[in-house]
Amino acid sequence: MARLTHFDKKGLAKMVDVSQKKETLREAVVRGSVLMNPKTFRRIMSGQIAKGDVLAVAKVAGIMAAKRTSEIIPMCHPLNLSHVEVNFYPFKKESRIDIEAKVRIKAQTGVEMEGFVAVATAGLTIYDMCKAIDRGMVLSNIHLVKKAGGKSGTYQLRRGHRA
User: Has residue 114 been placed in a domain?
Assistant: First the structure.
């Protein structure tokens, strides 16, 4: 079983010292979904939400959140990210919008958490902008799709496998 690096020998929480780690290109891809009623989906896609362009605002929110991950997740290192991309994939039949964040950096630590925070924040922004018409929206299935770089190498979610 892998050792948990955020705990010392006494079991107390600690920030991992990455000062001796090699700087490598690190990437993460994280996905999640927002499910909603069909009326909400149609209004988002046709730009009929009173607060504005939902997906444009959610994209900016996701990018901003990724850059501030260390302020939210206690043991994350503050990082100067090289690239953050947030994309949306609407599925009309399911009244669902999938969110994907791609994060990249050349550093001594990975960017998985930045991807998770970007997807979660983009989903929460969609909820916030549409809650007046649909309080039953569900954010779901936020998961790591790919991680590359660093000592542990590449992780790729296997096809058909859900985290």
Answer: yes
Q: What is the pLDDT of residue 92?
A: 97
The residue with greater pLDDT, 163 or 134, is 134
The mean pLDDT of the chain is: 92
Q: What are the DSSP calls for the chain, one per residue?
A: -PPPTTB-TTS-B-----TTSPPEEEEEEEEEEEE--HHHHHHHHTT--TT--HHHHHHHHHHHHHHTHHHHSTTPPP---SEEEEEEEEEGGGTEEEEEEEEEEEESS--HHHHHHHHHHHHHHHHHHHTTT-TT-EEEEEEEEEEE-STT--EEPPTT---
Report the CATH number that the domain containing residue 106 is assigned in CATH: 3.30.70.640
Residue 81: inside a domain: yes
pLDDT band at residue 13 under the 50/70/90 scheme: confident
Residue 98 falls in the annotated catalytic set: no
**8, 17, 53, 128: which is the annotated catalytic residue?**
128
CA distance 23 to 68: 21
